[in-house]
Amino acid sequence: MDPLQPGDPRQVGPYRLTGRLGAGGMGQVFLGVSPGGRKVAVKVIRAEHASSPQFRARFAREVQAAQRVGGFHTAPVVDADPDAESPWLVTAFIPGPSLHQEVSEHGPLELGAVRGLGAGLAEGLAAIHACGVVHRDLKPGNVIMAEDGPRIIDFGIARPADASSLTSTGVVIGTFAYMSPEQVHGERTGPASDVFSLGCVLIFAATGQGPFDAATIPAIVHRIISEEPRLGGITGDLRDLAGACLAKTPTDRPGVEEILTRLATRADPTAKAPATKAQTTPPAGQPATAGRPTTLQPARPPHHQPGPPARTATPTRPLADDGGAGPVDPAQTPAPTPTTFPRRALILGALGTAGLAAISYPIIRVLEPDNPPTATLTGHTRSVVSVAFSPDGRTLASGSVDETVRLWDVATGRSTATLTGHESSTKVAFSPDGRTLASGGDDMRLWDVATRRNTATLNVPLDTANPHSIYSVAFSPDGKTVASGSSDATVRLWDVATGRNTATLTGHKDGVFSVAFGPDGHILASGGLATVRLWDVATGRSTATLTGHESATAVAFSPDGRTLANGGDGMVRLWDVATRRSTATLTGADDFVNSVAFSPDGRTLAGGSTDMTVRLWKIP
Predict the structure, then answer these.
(1) Is there a contact between 62 and 75 (Cβ–Cβ < 8 Å)?
(2) What are 88-108's pLDDT values in tens digits?
(3) Contact indicator for 392, 409 with CB cutoff of 8 Å
(4) Alpha carbons 222 and 135: distance in angstroms, whole number
(5) Helix (H, G, I), strand (E, B), or coil: what is residue 434?
(6) Annotated active-site positions, please?
């Protein structure tokens, strides 16, 4: 527990606050004391969201769901006021760390303890489902390791099992690494979805990492939908059960009663985590060391198991449903051989005069071609998912799963600002003049780089039952428009001066993980899970759909605008923008290519991959 900070409330309703317990999806959680002296947990919605009907509705649902379930499987609701100026919820205080904290600090659990954990969680889910509620966000951070067994908390996105309004096409709610395939697709979710999440939680408890962990959301989604789970060293009946929970088809998964029966007879509720850690590296999303590294050498990465072998596929004919994309040019340019930088870099963020910025776990490194890292920037507490250089190369912005944006002085490696306000991982982009920074997470924000002030918050007018996440942001070359790609399968264009949403581009069938303007600003590219679309910015019309990858999300235009690169499943494709023909396939990546960028002269393409490597290809 942390002490209260100067701006924190000291009283909420009749409850006196004594410390900070943490932050939830919508607000802060405090330790409080009831008038009778009992300890309670008080969740207060953040001030910046209190005026939003969307967040108030979501908070009210959390209260209703938690009250509906009750019992010893959750933290019982003591009091609540969803209509207060700053809405709040009070539950009984359950002492104990979260499963995430337990594994992070002490290593994976013994298999006997995992069985006991699984039996307790299955019993809790059975009680939740019996009340007609689906949790939809079961993850290690939402499991409290209490003395008398695990408790499931945080009903912020739980809904009645028969709520059809939950599943608007393309809307994805939850924590990606623990989502079921049907959740990822934005389909109706029932109790079987919670069973899938339970399987993920058990694997995390036993191994320290999730079965679909990857560096980026697109790579996680690809693994959930298309790959078998990675079960680590689990053996025997527990491996069989976890594998059954992780079946792609909901009807193939066991019910919670069956899970409870299979685990209860073998569970050992007294088993504790081993005295010595069963792993030498932390689970995904946690720092590799307790403090800052003492050298500029790359820190040891999290556990990584190799993905599928690289596929060398020849380009196939793209779909021509809305742009007349032509056939593949038979005389393709031979694929260049990549230069590999095995710096354990997970994602490429930017390529400019200051060098190559790569993301490695929660650490950022600045690389010079053919040289070791010149700087290691630490400060984020969870994985960094986006980086961008300012146009003059002096400032680097980074967005993280820790819900913050940081600004860095490239020359000194010093963090100059931490920008807060988002409630999900953030993507960042600088305007062409470097004066404005855009960040996208649960909403879209514009920042004055000089003053560090949030100048605009761009809220998407969605159904209040269906909050979204912004996966990608990009400025137009003139800096007057910013584009965002979203989990609701749309691309939106915003007027930077007024903050007005000027166009909503539809056509993707899933989340949009990458957006890029052509250098003349007339064309926009967007990358979904399996398709890339080109758009006429003036009319908002889709002019082409480019296919060829099983999963392809990253897009970038060459400086002259003639070539489009898109990365995906183990390769990068180059396209002639004018003819829509695929001109080359760049291979050499051993796993998903998360992002791509051209050098300023257009002669080099950089790609960052989930295989923890950054590669450079020379472009003829």
Answers:
(1) no
(2) 989 888 888 999 999 989 999
(3) no
(4) 23
(5) coil
(6) 137
